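Reminder to self: tokens first, then the designed residues, so the page reads top to bottom the way the pipeline ran.
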């Protein structure tokens, strides 16, 4: 039942992104986008929910490579967010903004923590271990990037 809920959320997000790209947002979503910072909130929630739903759904499929698959989903979503934002330069009713891109990245990071915390909870069994596991994983990734 939970996976069905995430599937419905995924479909809703894809529909909203499609409507935004076509310039045909429903009135309620258009009003949300028009308040100050509403488009940033939209980017944060859209990219964050994409990584959240894909991350949760992939946890049940790939049992052996769970943490790798969660990180891979986050990287692929970040690539998609970058592509989607840079492609807005060529659509006359859309505008490119680095702030939108950063808010999408923040959504990926903050909502992407949830599947990795679930993996750590399954591995270690308590919530403090999950926090330290997540921080340790992120620090390791930063040091790997710095070494290269």
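Designed residues (148 positions):
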């Amino acid at each position: 039942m939970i996976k069905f809920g995430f599937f419905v959320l995924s479909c809703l997000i894809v529909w909203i992104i499609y409507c935004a790209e076509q310039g045909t947002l429903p009135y309620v979503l258009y009003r949300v986008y028009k308040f100050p910072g509403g488009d940033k909130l939209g980017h944060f929630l859209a990219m964050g929910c994409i990584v959240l739903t894909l991350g949760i759904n992939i946890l049940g499929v790939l049992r052996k490579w769970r943490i790798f698959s969660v990180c891979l989903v986050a990287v692929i979503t970040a690539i998609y967010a970058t592509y989607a934002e840079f492609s807005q330069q060529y659509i006359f009713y859309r505008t490119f903004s680095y702030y939108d891109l950063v808010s999408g990245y923040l959504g990926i990071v903050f909502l992407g923590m949830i599947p990795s915390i679930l993996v750590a909870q399954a591995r270690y069994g308590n919530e403090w271990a999950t926090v330290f596991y997540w921080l340790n994983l992120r620090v390791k990734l930063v040091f790997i990037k710095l070494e290269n």
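The CA atoms of residues 56 and 126 lie 19 Å apart.
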